[in-house]
C-alpha cells in the first residue's frame, strides 16, 4: 500500500498514539480502537468537510490529506485571514446544529462531577510538585468553575485545535482528528479553537453567528490548560513556550 513512497514525516508521536504522513496520506496508529472507531463514524456523520478514509487495518487508520493549510499553530501568530477564522466559526456552528451522535462525548462530554474531581486533583499536583505557582492555579481554578455547569449537548468535535482546521483562502477545506467527538458543550469547541489566540475570538463568533457566554469560553481556556500542563510536559511538549498553555493561564490573572 505504501509503494513509491520514499519519505515519512512524523506528525505527532507519544505513548498513546502516533500520526505519520506518507505523501498525501496520513497513517494514524492508535492502540485504542474504540477511539479510532469514533473518529471514523464521526467523520461519516459530520456535516462539514472531513478527510477521506482510505483504509483501516487495526491499529492503523489511513486517511487522505485535506487541501489547504492549518488555520494556525498554538504559540505562533496565525496568517489566516479574518474571513477564514469566520468561516471556521460557521463550520463549527453547522456541526453543532447537526443531530447528536449516538455515543457520549469523550472530551467535555464526560460527566462534569468526574471532570471537577480530575481538575481538583490536577490543581493539587501542579502546586505540590512546583509546576505552577499556587496563586496562578487558584485563580484559574476559580475561572474554570463556570465550565462545570450542565448545558444542552451538541455534536461536538471534542479536540478542535486550530491545527485541526484547514483552510484554503477564506474557505474551510477540512477538519481532522475526530477521535474525541461526541456529545458535549458547544463552547468547549469554540474555546479549544481559540486557545492562545484570544484576538481571533470575535472573528470566530462572527462566523458562528449567535451570542455565547464569554465567561464560559474563558473558563474552558483555564480548565483545558490546567488539565493539560503536566500531560504535555510528560509527553515531550512545552506548555511554557510563548503563547501556549501557561501564558493562557497567566492571561486570566
Describe this structure in words.
InterPro entries: AGP_Transferase, Aminoglycoside_PTrfase, Kinase-like_dom_sf. Residues 46-210 form the Aminoglycoside phosphotransferase domain. Pfam families: APH. This protein has one domain (67-251): Aminoglycoside 3'-phosphotransferase, Chain: A, domain 2, CATH 3.90.1200. Helix content is 40%, strand content 18%. The chain contains eight helices and ten strands. The chain has helices at residues 33-45, 82-96, 112-128, 134-144, 186-194, 201-208, 214-234, 245-251, and strands at 8-13, 17-22, 25-30, 53-57, 60-64, 69-70, 154-156, 165-168, 171-175, 182-184. The strands form three sheets. A five-stranded antiparallel β-sheet has the order 1-2-3-5-4. β2 and β3 form a beta hairpin. The chain is globular. The model has no long low-confidence stretch (mean pLDDT 93).
What's the main sheet like?
5 strands, antiparallel
CATH superfamily: Aminoglycoside phosphotransferase (APH), C-terminal lobe
Give Rg in angstroms: 18 Å
Uncertain segments are none
The count of DSSP E runs of length 2 or more, i.e. the number of strands, is: 10
What is the top-level CATH class? Alpha Beta
Q: Work out the helix count.
A: 8
Mean pLDDT equals 93
- Count of the domains: 1
The structural class is alpha+beta
Binned strand content: 15-25%
Strand order across the largest sheet: 1-2-3-5-4
- What would the CATH topology be? Aminoglycoside 3'-phosphotransferase, Chain: A, domain 2
Q: Examine the secondary-structure arrangement and name the CATH architecture.
A: Alpha-Beta Complex
Q: What global shape is seen?
A: globular
Amino acid at each position: 500500500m505504501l509503494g513509491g513512497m520514499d519519505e515519512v514525516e512524523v506528525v505527532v508521536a507519544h505513548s498513546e498514539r502516533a500520526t505519520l504522513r506518507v505523501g498525501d496520506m496520513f497513517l494514524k496508529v492508535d492502540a485504542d480502537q474504540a477511539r479510532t472507531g469514533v473518529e471514523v463514524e464521526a467523520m461519516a456523520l459530520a456535516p462539514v468537510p472531513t478527510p477521506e478514509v482510505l483504509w483501516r487495518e487495526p491499529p492503523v487508520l489511513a486517511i487522505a490529506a485535506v487541501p489547504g493549510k492549518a488555520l494556525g499553530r498554538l504559540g505562533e501568530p496565525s496568517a489566516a485571514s479574518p474571513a477564514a477564522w469566520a468561516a471556521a466559526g460557521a463550520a463549527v456552528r453547522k456541526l453543532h446544529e447537526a443531530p447528536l451522535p449516538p455515543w457520549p462525548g469523550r472530551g467535555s462530554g464526560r460527566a462534569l462531577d468526574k471532570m471537577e474531581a480530575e481538575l481538583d486533583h490536577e490543581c493539587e499536583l501542579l502546586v505540590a510538585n512546583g509546576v505552577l505557582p499556587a496563586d496562578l492555579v487558584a485563580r484559574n481554578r476559580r475561572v474554570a468553575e463556570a465550565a462545570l455547569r450542565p448545558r444542552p449537548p451538541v455534536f461536538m468535535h471534542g479536540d478542535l485545535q486550530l491545527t485541526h482546521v484547514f483552510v484554503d483562502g477564506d474557505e474551510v477545506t477540512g477538519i481532522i482528528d475526530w477521535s474525541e467527538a461526541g456529545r458535549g458543550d458547544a463552547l468547549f469547541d469554540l474555546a479549544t479553537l481559540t486557545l492562545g489566540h484570544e484576538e481571533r475570538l470575535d472573528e470566530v463568533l462572527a462566523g458562528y453567528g449567535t451570542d455565547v457566554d464569554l465567561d464560559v469560553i474563558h473558563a474552558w481556556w483555564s480548565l483545558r490548560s490546567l488539565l493539560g500542563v503536566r500531560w504535555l510536559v510528560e509527553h515531550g511538549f512545552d506548555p511554557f513556550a510563548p503563547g501556549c498553555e501557561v501564558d493562557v493561564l497567566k492571561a486570566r490573572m
